[in-house]
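Record 1 of the preview.
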Amino acid sequence: MIKPPFSPLRRGHIAARAFSISHARRNAAALPARKPVGAFRGGLFGFLTGSVVAGGSVYWYILGDYRIANEMLSDDITALQSATLSLQSYIRELEDKVDRLHKK
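->
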């Protein structure tokens, strides 16, 4: 079997490939040039986006922490108020008992 000189089967040779452009493609208008985003603008935009996201997440975390602390403080104030009221009623009872003992 005799092989042609540019056969892809021959060792060390690459098959030749013809490139062509269709008529419609050749007459198509070129795409408008895109203005590239520079490294400075891209970096600045990324930095600002990251800062906003980080700031928002910290804000929500602190807001939740503040809400929990506020609820705990309100519970402590309510407990202190009830303890104060019970102490006042106990002191009134003791004063009444002391007054009754002095009257006898």
